[in-house]
Amino acid sequence: MGKLLDAGGGSGALAAYVRRHLDPESITVVDVDAAALAETPAGMHTRLSRIEDLSDADGRFDTILARQVLHYVASAVDALTLLRKLLLPGGVIYVGQIVAPDQSAARWLAERASWASPTRHSVFTTDALLSLFAHAGLGLERAVIAPHWQRLKPTAQAIGATTHAGDNGAMAMHAEDDVIHVRVLWLHCLLVADETARPGGMPRQAAV
Ligand SMILES: C[S@@+](CC[C@H](N)C(=O)[O-])C[C@H]1O[C@@H](n2cnc3c(N)ncnc32)[C@H](O)[C@@H]1O
After folding, report:
1. CB under 8 Å to 96, separation ≥6 — which residues?
2. Could you say which of 6, 109, 110, 138 would form a disulfide bridge with 29 (CB–CB 3.0 to 4.6 Å)?
């Protein structure tokens, strides 16, 4: 396991889970939220920074975690490329991300995702995320995909917009009081630096 970086790790919940089950040599949690970092468990290093601003000076790592953070960065391919460069030889990156089942569903969700997180930049599909990995020079070692009902609590205005829009054929969803549940997917990926991958710019249509 070696040196572990939890990128956009918040209060270090995932890093703490990993520490309970494995035995990392050290843990560094990077996040833009000082209040969240203040809650990381004892024994973890913290760094108040955007992922995009990390450099070699922050160290290099055997294992990098990036769970539910790529939709907050302006360019996920740039952030992933940067994280790849922070890997020690033989290192791995875990990306865990909630994704939309297809492009149409991603567009529908992107319009409404600010209900849940106003600073969100993107909603990915599975294909989009896999394409981003290749463009960031990362090879996919293993992937697990699981269905998931995402709970969204819309504002009153947004509920009106949904009612007006009527049913959305692309998204399975059900409403319960003032909360809607939309059918999405959890994508868990283990990635390695891939010399054969073709690093490059963000592919078109990769995310909405
Ligand atoms: C949904 S939370 C996920 C936290 C953690 N990865 C987990 O799975 O429990 C997203 C986190 O990303 C952080 N974040 C957002 N944009 C960031 C950026 N550009 N660089 C680093 N962290 C960022 C937020 O402050 C927040 O803690």
Report:
1. 14, 65, 66, 67, 68, 186, 187, 188, 189
2. 6
Q: For residue 16, what are its two tokens?
A: 């703490």
Instruction: State if pTM tops 0.85.
Output: yes
Cα–Cα distance between 110 and 116 in angstroms, integer? 11
What are the residue ranges spanned by the domains of the chain?
3-193
Cα 158 to averaged position of ligand 1 atoms, centre (Å): 25
Which ligand 1 atom sits closest to the C-alpha of 10?
27
Write the residue with the smallest CA distance to atom 5 of ligand 1. 9
Is the dihedral angle over the CA atoms 131, 203, 83, 108 positive or is it negative?
negative
The neighbour count for residue 193, using CB atoms within 10 Å, is 19
Q: How far is the CA of 88 from the centre of ligand 1 (A)?
A: 23
Q: Which atom of ligand 1 is nearest to 36's Cα?
A: 27
Number of residues that this document lists for the chain? 208
Q: Would you give the DSSP letter of residue 203?
A: P
pLDDT of 174 reads 65
Please list every protein residue whose CB sits less than 6 Å from any atom of ligand 1.
8-10, 13-14, 30-33, 36, 50-52, 67-69, 72-73
Mean pLDDT by 10 residues, the chain (208 residues): 96 98 96 98 98 95 97 95 97 96 86 71 91 96 93 61 45 67 92 73 50
Q: What is the fold of 3-193?
A: Rossmann fold (3.40.50)
pLDDT of residue 167: 46
